[in-house]
Amino acid sequence: MGFAELSNVLWRERELLEILLFKLEEEQLVLATGRNRWLAHATREVEFVLEQIRDAELLRGVELQHVNALLGTSGDLPLSTLAELAPPPWNDLFRTHRQAFLTLTNEITTLADANRDLLTAGVRSVAEALVDVGGSAGTYNSSGRAPTVGQAGGRLLDLAF
Predict the structure, then answer these.
(1) Per-residue pLDDT at 123
(2) Where are the domains of the chain?
(3) pTM value surpassing 0.85
C-alpha cells in the first residue's frame, strides 16, 4: 500500500472521467438529434458512471491514508501538494494526473452545461408547442390536475422580500 496503489486508483478515476465524457457526448447527440426515445437510457448510463466515480473516490481516500502515513502527513491532500511531497518518480506522475483531471473536469463541465442548455431548450419548445395547440403549459393545481384554460396556474412567491 502506497504510491503505486494510489496512482492505480488515480488512473482508474481518469478512465472513469473519460467514460463520463463519452457518455455525456452520447447524451448530447441524442438531445441534438431529437431522438428522445433514448434519452432515459443515455442519462441512466451517465448516472451509472457517476456512481462508479464516487466509489473510486472512496478508494482514493483509503489509499491516500496509506500515503499520508508514508509522508507523515494527514488529511485529504490535494494532488498539487501530494506532487510536491512525493519522491521521484511519483511527484511527476501525480502532477500528470492532476493536469489530466483539470483538463477532463473542464471538458466535462463544458459538455454538461451544453447538455443542460439543450434540455432546457427542449422543455421550452414543448411548453410553447402545448400553448400553440391550445393546451396549457401550466403547473398542476392542488388536486393534482392541470388547470383548465382560464384558471390561474401555480405561482412562486419569494418570501425574502
Answers:
(1) 72
(2) 3-133
(3) no
